[in-house]
Amino acid sequence: MDTTKKQVMEILSDHDADQIPALSGDSLIGSTSSESYPMLSNQLKDDIVQGLDDDLEIIDKRLIGRGSGLDVVTISGMGGIGKTTLAKKVYNHRPIRCHFDIFVWVTISQEFQYKNVLLEALHCISKKKPKDYNGMSDNELADLVQKSLKGPRYLVVVDDIWSTDVWDSISQIFPNRNNGSRVLLTTRETDVAIYANPSSPHKMNLLDLDNSWKLLRDKVFGLEQDHPPELEEIGKKIAEKCQGLPLIISVIAGHLSKTVPKTLESWKYVAKSLSEIIASHPNKCLGVLGLSYHHLPNRLKPCFLSMGDFPEDFQVETWRLIQLWIAEGFIRTSSGSRESLEEVAEHYLEDLISRNLIMARKKRFNGEVKACGIHDLLREFCLIEAEMTKFMHVVRTPFSPAQKPNFRRFSIQKYIPDAYKLLPPEARSMYCFSYLGLPFEPRIKPLPLLPIYRHDPIIHRFFSCFNHLRVLAIFPTWFRSFPLVITKLFHLRYLLVRCFGNIPESISELLNLQTLICDADPLGITLPRKLWMMKNLRYIRLRVASYLPSPRIDKNLVTGMPNLEEFFGLCYSSCTNEVFSSIPNLKRLTIYAPSRVDNVPYHLLDMSKVRNLEAFKLFWRYKFEKPIKRFVFPTSLRRLTLTFCSKFIWEEISSTFTMLPNLEELKLKDYEADDDVWIMSDKDIFKSLKLLLLSGRNLKRWEASSDNFPNLKRLVLKKCKALQEIPTDFGEICTLESIELHYCSTTSEDSARNIEQEQEDMGNNILKVYIHSSHTD
């Protein structure tokens, strides 16, 4: 029987007949066994896939290999990425067909019905119809499924599962007979995949440009036909705009093959109108993604829809997104919870990422998300859903007074003259990604590429229209001076503005302000003393060195910012004990050296009173006496970055920073030490350090052992041209996962390769070496 079975499978494979029908996301019961329907040669074009060979190999090995016990293999990814397609390909792959005896395919929907799943499984096993089981209870059906699966080696595909509760319900029907049976599970929810099996869930990635173009080309022209060479360049541009999502590529390919003549001009038009084409296929595109959105708990829906506030391909820094969510009122803490609003917001973001609705664009070494974004198709869904529910209106096209949108949140993403006159005065949030259409002066220094707006009555009229604003974020526009009218917007919680000159004292009138972000004069600014009256401030980000007067100069002033958690851009000369005592809950601090050397009085900067400080960055541009010796660091520090530091010796690095028991990241960027040898003794132990980054030219010799960095995960060396080699003992650091070299010496590159090879010879495949060179071997 085994020989006959293999022969039949070979025949079917040769004729491409071993296919299963397409399954809709809502399908509960259908003929899903590949042996229950005739050949589908007319559907071959729909079954064309690209870029899944590596995924197929990984899943095959996991299904066929490992032990004899029942194992659950999981595939996760965003809607439309091809999870079901990959599962189909695995389900019909000849090695899989030859390995297993029984094949079952069940599709789960958001409206889960246990009985329907049991009937679907029984149909695959026995080919009987649901009516044949009339009168049987759920327990009787489950018992029948279990008995049918107890003998042979089976493969069950559970497609499109949405929750851990559903998995708990159905996992009991799969018996473990220690015969190598497997369950293959697909889900959009990474948390569900990890719950079903914490061991290495397989996460699908978007297609690269090459495979995107191949998929588009083959679906339009077929596997056997050549494409016109003049269409390749524009075809690749179309494929690139699909951003690697097979669902979009398939829809666009269908549009190109059925409704558009295959000419260069017509394809150029498609490239320009991609969004409109996607929107015209709501069931195929947006409907698929709508399932993910409607499955969200209510607390996450506004957070997800808010991603539509940002233009296409906009990378949102995590800190910015979290502060916006808090200001918008999307984040709530439960009574009795000790978590801060920021911590709750981080959990929300992690949840949306695990559901594959938001993509992590940049990550820290420890997995923390630095920047995130959203696929264009998901963004298009956000815009449509937000418009339908009156959550938000994105200004992208001109509109007349008769079309005046009755919304509370607006995102201006295209220049429209006098658009503000048509927006309702009740607006609560305004995001400006386009110039406001106000009069501006000619381009001037020091920002020659930006128009600088005057302070004139039109600006006053613009902002005074919206007295109820809570969020005002003006991204591209620069003002010659801080618009005073903004300080009259009493309800503001979040303010992003770019201007020259100092921030006025009247900023203190914004008593509800939580987040202040100001790009200002590169030469530095002086902050008003009344800033200390703003007790609700949680986040200050000033991209220049900013002098903050002592809060105790005026004894009649109610001082202190007890809720402030981050201050980016504080001037070194304003760092006093009085300042630090008045911001006791600060978690993140960035200090700039002032613009002139004679403005730097020598004093010891004792930060030990800031006991919650976790991250500290120092930008020190001047080459004079030992900046490291000017600081007393708090033991709470987890991340430390020193940029442009000089006049230190390497022994100071060891003696100073090994005394910080919680330090996990240490970055020395563009340093210039007084000596060129770093010799670490047995007592120099960075107990918690996981990331070490060195970027400088004058370190020649480095003597250290694995004992100096017992928990190091990632070592990054940049522009270390003089460094002869990496300490060979670093290969013995059992936690070390990567060594990265960027434009370093050839000898240090060779030493990194030797360390990697030595570890591979010993069976350690965890350590990886990445080399980015500017020279050739």
Automatic annotation (TrEMBL):
Phylogenetic placement of the source organism: Eukaryota, Viridiplantae, Streptophyta, Embryophyta, Tracheophyta
Residue intervals of the Disease resistance R13L4/SHOC-2-like LRR domain: 463-743
Keyword Coiled coil listed: yes
Keywords attached to this entry: ATP-binding, Coiled coil, Cytoplasm, Hypersensitive response, Leucine-rich repeat, Membrane, Nucleotide-binding, Plant defense, Repeat
NB-ARC domain residues: 54-222
GO cellular component terms, semicolon-separated: cytoplasm; membrane
Molecular function per GO: ATP binding
InterPro entries listed in its UniProt record: Apaf_helical (IPR042197), Disease_R_plants (IPR044974), LRR_dom_sf (IPR032675), LRR_R13L4/SHOC2-like (IPR055414), NB-ARC (IPR002182), P-loop_NTPase (IPR027417), WH-like_DNA-bd_sf (IPR036388), WHD_DRP (IPR058922)
Lineage: superkingdom: Eukaryota
Membrane protein topology class: Peripheral membrane protein
Function text: Confers resistance to late blight (Phytophthora infestans) races carrying the avirulence gene Avr1. Resistance proteins guard the plant against pathogens that contain an appropriate avirulence protein via an indirect interaction with this avirulence protein. That triggers a defense system including the hypersensitive response, which restricts the pathogen growth.
Gene Ontology BP, a term: plant-type hypersensitive response
Gene3D superfamilies listed in its UniProt record: Helical domain of apoptotic protease-activating factors (1.10.8.430), P-loop containing nucleotide triphosphate hydrolases (3.40.50.300), Ribonuclease Inhibitor (3.80.10.10), Winged helix-like DNA-binding domain superfamily/Winged helix DNA-binding domain (1.10.10.10)
Keyword Nucleotide-binding: yes
Protein name, as recorded: NB-ARC domain-containing protein
Chief site of localization: cytoplasm
PANTHER family found in the cross-reference section: AAA+ ATPASE DOMAIN-CONTAINING PROTEIN (PTHR23155:SF1152), DISEASE RESISTANCE PROTEIN RP (PTHR23155)
Compartments it resides in: Cytoplasm; Membrane
